Model the fold of this input.
Amino acid sequence: MSNQHTYSVPFSEEELRRDYDSGMTQAEVANKWGTTQKVVWRAMRRWGIPARVAAKRDQWGEANHMWKGDDATYKAMHHRLTTRFGQPQRCDVCGTTDRRRSYDWANLTGKIEDLEDYRRMCRSCHRKYDGKINNIECMRLARDGD
Done:
């Protein structure tokens, strides 16, 4: 006899244990069997299969569903730098390590996707460097525009 609260599972207890013990998440098991995560969760509870503590998986780089590769934004590239190399605490140009100063990852050539194309700079040196680059670009445009 069935009522509105009964449900059938498209897998056996052994199949569920095998899939879940292999490292699949409840959602992945559900997707494999064409059902919902809630059905998997209820079956696990009914059969006494303990659920793992939810934990983030490796989501670095291309494993991240939001990965855009070289098409990432300027802000995203700086986030990659900080994640990979940490927040700069010194300036590679003037050598200061004064904790009262702000430090940046300064892009050297405009190739923001190249993580090796950055240097640690204090805010003062970074602004001076960017000013020089802007002046060179303006001179190049003026020269090529004539």
Summary: The chain is about 45% helix and 5% strand. The chain has a mean pLDDT of 86. Residues 13-47 form one domain.
